[in-house]
Amino acid sequence: PVAMCASTVSSKMLQTMGLMEGFRFEETLTGFKWIGSCALSLQERGYQGELEFTVRPVLLLSSPTKLVQTRIFLSSVLLGYEEAIGFSCGGIIPDKDGISAIGLMATMVHSYYSMGKTLTSKLREIHQKYGEFVSNNGYYQCDDPAIVQRIISGMRNGGRYFEQVGGYSVESVRDLGTPGYDSTQDDKKPTLPTSASSPMVTFRFTNGGVAQFRASGTEPKFKYYIEMKGQPGEEKESVEQRLREMSGVILEHLLEPTKNGLIVPSSL
């Protein structure tokens, strides 16, 4: 069996690939401590394989040595991914690791070049099959925790989570605050850990959009992660346009930046 995992604020492309190709995909909270733990847990549940081979031990002495049959265990958790550009590849290290990632990338370049392809042409093939995934991730500066709580409370709408936001139909809602809520689960309880001090609210929309909101745990920022999934064959420019239109509406309706005194960073 093959598996991949990514933090919930990362692109949903891996999840879409898993649904279409039949491999297991699991979401985690943000941070590689969660992604690495998920990968190790998957290995313990059988997502690993064995490789047997014969070796001749190397000794300092020149005397002949017998061949030895040995085996190693290989992780079948092929990728762990975080949207802030971090990768854990092939179970080599259950943490963000640029050395193994660049080694794998170099291998991919060589393999595709031998087939007359480039990374760009392969990525184009992937988008043709699974659709374009375009994101708008950013933040507002917010120094007052009370404002963050007010915004999150507004999203909860007294426990009657919105069925529409600014004219966009909501497919599902997940709230990782306490006590937690997930409209996709039979018992309405999230499968991911919940936290009263670090809530995260996710809206999935029927048009393929996903909007997620959380406060930074280390900086005075209120973060948003909005992604639009295109249909296979849909031009990227079309998906980008739909994302721009939706982002403005969603941010205005759910965050009310002017009313709540949210500050747009000068770099954005």
Description:
The protein starts with a strand and ends in a 13-residue tail after the last helix. The mean pLDDT is 90. Strands 7, 8, 9, 10, 11, 12 and 13 form a seven-stranded antiparallel β-sheet that branches. A four-stranded mixed β-sheet has the order 2-1-5-6, with helices on both faces. The protein has a two-stranded antiparallel ribbon with strand order 3-4. The chain has helices at residues 13-21, 32-44, 98-114, 119-130, 145-156, 236-255; strands at residues 3-7, 24-28, 48-55, 68-75, 77-82, 86-89, 133-141, 164-165, 168-175, 181-182, 200-205, 209-215, 221-229. A hairpin with a 3-residue loop joins strand 5 (77-82) and strand 6. The protein is built from six helices and 13 strands. The protein is an alpha+beta fold and 268 residues long.
What is the terminal-to-terminal distance?
A: 43 Å
Strand residue percentage: 25-35%
Mean pLDDT over the residues = 90
Listing every helix as H and every strand as E from the N terminus to the C terminus, the arrangement reads: EHEHEEEEHHEHEEEEEEH
Protein structure class: alpha+beta
| Global geometry | globular
Helix content: 25-40%
Oligomer: single chain
Largest sheet: 7 strands, antiparallel
Rounded Rg = 22 Å
User: What is the number of beta strands?
Assistant: 13
Low-confidence stretches are none
Number of helices: 6
